[in-house]
Amino acid sequence: MNKQKITALACLFFLCLGTAFAQETAVEIKIKSEFGLGDTVSFDYNITSDTSQEMTFAAFINCPTAPLPPLWQQTATIGPSSPHSGHAEFLSVDESIEPQTCTAYVQIFSPITLKQEKEFKIEAKPGIEIEIKACKEEACRETSTVFNKGQIIVLTYASAIEGLAVNATLEFPDKTTKEITLPYSFTAEQTGTYNLAATASNEGYRSSEQTIQFGVIEKEPEITGPEWATPEPEAITPAAATPAAQEPKTAPSTGIIETIAGLPLMTQAAIVFVGIAAILSMIWLVQKLRK
User: What is the pLDDT of residues 141-175, one digit of tens each?
Assistant: First the structure.
């Protein structure tokens, strides 16, 4: 039981000692609330202490997307008659830095741990998002990187930001250059590779640069020949019927009476007589057989 009391009293003693020492040490940061294009991010700071102690500390900043130098620790003896004042510089705000909120820090690492912080803003201009395009028509429904000699080439851009000034340098295959303003169109008279370097600018934005490349070739020949040509359909005429394929002709069938009617009169009388004689012979033969 006594050991537990002693341990609790020791913890309470060191806690109170640390709290008292922390209260005796103070850190003050003086920094602008906002930095703009061309400014150098920096701040002043003061460290004071009622007790003379050798302290290890560092002054630094933290920004979400800005490049930062490595942390540099310093050592100084700080007391009632020897406060420490410092000035720290970090980065110069240029067009490559996006607008963001950062934090300035002064941190003591020993003999105690203490950190003071303060927020500030970098209000650099936002960048311009732009797409440089080479097209075969003014409407530019489809971009291209290959064109035929003699074809009109349209150089233009697409951006959600209105009122852009887009200046560019067009380099021809023979290495000559021309300063142009987009949109711009020209007739391709040289074959080879073209380079276009464009810079977009607008008040309130930082300028943006973009480079594209496209080529011009001789007009592609039209491929013709028997192996590529589509044969014209031949006129289809009915084939002449061969004797083997012809149907045999047959005379129209006619009745016996019609045939006899077409014979001469004397022939018709003879046929009738022969017919009657045949019938009478048949009757006689039948009667004879019955007897």
Answer: 889 999 999 999 999 999 999 999 999 999 999 99
Burial of 78: CB neighbours in 10 Å, binned 0-12, 13-18, 19+: buried
Question: How far is 191 from 152, CA to CA, in rounded Å?
Answer: 13
Contact 40, 93 (CB under 8 A): yes
What does residue 9 show for φ and ψ, rounded to 5 degrees? -65, -35
Q: How many domains does the chain have?
A: 2
Contact of 114 with 28, CB cutoff 8 Å: no
Cα distance between residue 167 and residue 179, in whole Å: 7
- 144: domain CATH number? 2.60.40.10
Q: What is the dihedral of CA 253, 256, 258, 262, to 10 degrees?
A: 110
Which single residue is written with the structure tokens 């009622």?
Answer: 50
Its domain, for residue 210, covers 131-217
pLDDT digits (tens, 9 = 90+) for 88-113: 999 999 878 888 999 999 999 999 99
* Contacts with 205 (C-beta within 8 Å, 6 or more apart), sequence order: 125, 126, 127, 128, 161
From the CB of residue 174, how many other CB atoms can be counted at a distance below 10 Å? 7
Measured distance CA(26)–CA(49) in Å, rounded: 6
Give 280's pLDDT tier (boundaries 50, 70, 90).
confident
In 182-224, beta strands by DSSP E: 184-187, 192-201, 208-217
Do 143 and 191 sit in the same domain of this protein? yes
- Of 173, 170, 175, the closest CA to residue 154 belongs to 170
Rounded to whole angstroms, the Cα distance separating 195 from 217 reads 15
Residue written as token pair 């930062």 = 68
Asked if residue 66 and residue 108 are part of one domain, the reply reads yes
